[in-house]
């Protein structure tokens, strides 16, 4: 709630927290704001900032929970939601729609579709004799991501100056054009995927013991992994389609949740949702307020995320040395 209040108050147009609360409370029964309302503060809070803050929260929840679930599936703390190529596929779809708008008029829909296509290609190529090894899946995901990244580079080469600038800004991520329609599209998918991942969290705990031990306790590891991959992929794809590529959130936030609450995924997944949503709201507030021009959100998360990963690695290495 504190992050929400900061996100609604901070920005080029100065509106105090009490004024934000008054406007929000006055309209809670019938917002979004009627288009005929001419009060500047109400328009800024209800039409611009509320959908932006909600979208930032939803994307933060999606990326953080997907990262926590995939780290549990693969038993690897360095796995992130983009590991299977969804971000590169979505970037190619968005770039294709920007360069050839007559073929693909919707950037978000193209990004979502090609993100799912990339993960589907990863899943199909990694299946050998009806089974999929975790290592093979990750390696194929890296290869598919590299392939789509090369295609994005080719589109950058072909794009004119205006399209190239739009591609670069989309790749850096942000909520510049967030609307209530975006929230209505993203929210159902993110909420359903979060609930599915949380419901399966106790099975993720058993996967951490190894596949043989999990089977002996009544869990079917391939089925659980498929469910987690589908939920994480859908949540990540819809998030990338709405906001562009936002790095580090799905990697660092689950680690922060584990540092606070331990390794039990029944608590890590909802804690990752709360921390990820709050973190991305605050990062977006920084992006809007640090300078007179808005900073792409991916820059903020990368600047904050890289030192955090260095801190984690130093702690791990220090523990091993000790």
Q: What are the SSEs and their pairings?
A:
Layout (H helix, E strand, L loop, with lengths): L1 H8 L7 H11 L12 H35 L11 H14 L7 H20 E2 L2 E2 L1 H25 L2 H12 L7 H20 L1 H7 L3 H6 L4 H23 L5 H13 L3 H25 L7 H25 L1
* Multimeric organization: single chain
Low-confidence stretches: 33-38, 317-322
Strand order within the widest beta sheet:
1-2
CATH homolog superfamily: ABC transporter involved in vitamin B12 uptake, BtuC
Order of helix and strand elements from N to C terminus: HHHHHEEHHHHHHHHH
Helix count from the secondary structure assignment: 14
How large is the share of residues in beta strands?
under 5%
- In CATH terms, what is the architecture? Orthogonal Bundle
Give a short account of the largest sheet: 2 strands, antiparallel
Helix content: over 70%
Q: Tally the structural domains.
A: 1
Radius of gyration computed on alpha carbons: 20 Å
Structural class by helix and strand composition: mainly alpha
Alpha carbon gap, first and last residue = 40 Å
Instruction: Give the overall pLDDT as a whole number.
Output: 87
CATH class: Mainly Alpha
Q: Sum up the overall morphology in one term.
A: globular
CATH topology: ABC transporter involved in vitamin B12 uptake, BtuC
Count of DSSP E strands? 2
């Amino acid at each position: 709630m504190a992050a929400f209040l900061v996100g609604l108050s901070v920005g080029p147009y100065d509106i105090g927290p009490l004024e934000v609360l008054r406007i929000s409370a006055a309209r809670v029964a019938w917002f979004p704001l009627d288009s005929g309302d001419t009060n500047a503060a109400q328009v800024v809070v209800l039409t611009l900032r509320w959908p932006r803050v909600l979208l930032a929260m939803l994307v933060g929840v999606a990326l953080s929970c997907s990262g926590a679930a995939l780290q549990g599936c693969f038993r690897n703390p360095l796995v992130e939601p983009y590991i299977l190529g969804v971000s590169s596929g979505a970037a190619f779809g968005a770039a294709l729609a920007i360069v050839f708008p007559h073929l693909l008029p919707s950037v978000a829909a193209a990004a979502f579709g090609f993100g799912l296509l990339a993960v589907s290609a990863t899943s199909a190529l990694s299946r050998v004799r009806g089974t999929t090894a975790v290592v093979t899946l990750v390696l194929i995901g890296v290869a598919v991501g590299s392939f789509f990244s090369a295609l994005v580079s080719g589109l950058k080469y072909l794009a004119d100056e205006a399209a190239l600038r739009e591609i670069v800004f989309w790749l850096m991520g942000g909520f510049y054009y967030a609307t209530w329609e975006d929230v209505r599209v993203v929210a159902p998918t993110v909420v359903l995927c979060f609930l599915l991942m949380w419901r399966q969290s106790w099975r993720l705990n058993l996967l951490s013991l190894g596949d043989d031990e999990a089977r002996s306790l009544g869990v079917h590891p391939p089925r659980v992994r498929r469910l987690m991959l589908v939920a994480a992929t859908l949540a990540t794809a819809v998030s990338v389609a709405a906001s562009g590529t936002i790095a580090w959130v799905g990697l660092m936030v689950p680690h922060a949740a584990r540092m606070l609450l331990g390794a039990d995924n029944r608590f890590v997944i909802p804690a990752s949702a709360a921390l990820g949503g709050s973190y991305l709201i605050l990062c977006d507030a920084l992006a809007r307020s640090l300078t007179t021009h808005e900073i792409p959100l991916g820059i903020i998360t990368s600047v904050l995320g890289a030192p955090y990963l260095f801190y984690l690695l130093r702690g791990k290495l220090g523990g091993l040395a000790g």
